[in-house]
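Q: Could you fold this chain for me?
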Amino acid sequence: MPFREVPMVETKEIVRLWLAGLPKKRIAARLGVDPKTVRHYIRAAEQAGLRAGQGEGALTEEALCAVLVALHAGLRRERGATWIECAAQGEFIRKHLGHGVRLTKIRKLLMRQGVFVSYATLHRYAVLELAFGRRGATIPVADCEPGEELQVDTGWMGYLERDPSGKRRRFRAWIFTSVLSRHRFVYPCFKESTTTAIEACEAAWDFFGGIFRVLLPDNTKAIIVQADPLKPRINRAFLEYSQTRSFHIDPTRVRAATLACGV
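A: Sure. Below is the predicted structure, expressed as structure tokens.
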């Protein structure tokens, strides 16, 4: 049976556990993958220069990239005749893609020239060799400093167990997420109010071990009376609380949802 390719997160976890000294079968049982898959990924790690028992600190970003390169080198396979046909017509395909011609039309043009390739192979060639359908690189966003920004949102969490009368009470929660570390703190409550917002903040400061400089709340009425991109109105009681605790309130920007279209 061939090994199952696993996501990058699982790849990193396989190598991390192996470096920590766990046996291959225990790694497979913990992650729910086949032992053969674990052995395959460990071989790639060994090719990248890692050794069992080195410790998790050996898995740097550079080492992980080397493991991934070794993995994909092992996945390469010989191309079929149709791929070779696509490669021979590479300049023709590139030229028409550059002029905005659809890939289905390019396939028809190739067929008129006596080149018969399946659409699946043509599409795969265009994606892998000609960057067909790839979007532009995303703009990198600079991370904030530790303790700089904290996001806060609210939401329904579920129901409590039934009380003696048989009723189940629904409860909410204030959800705090550190922008840098993505560590999360959840404060359950029955009512979304300014009072519970302040109580939740106090509990969050205890959890995170300090007060963040900037709080980014969603536009809940308990904190933001009126949302506005330029002049939001902040609840007076919460504003006074923020001044007492010396943190800045930066409300969520109001935006309309848009549908991104791509090839």
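A (continued): Residues 81-130 form one domain.
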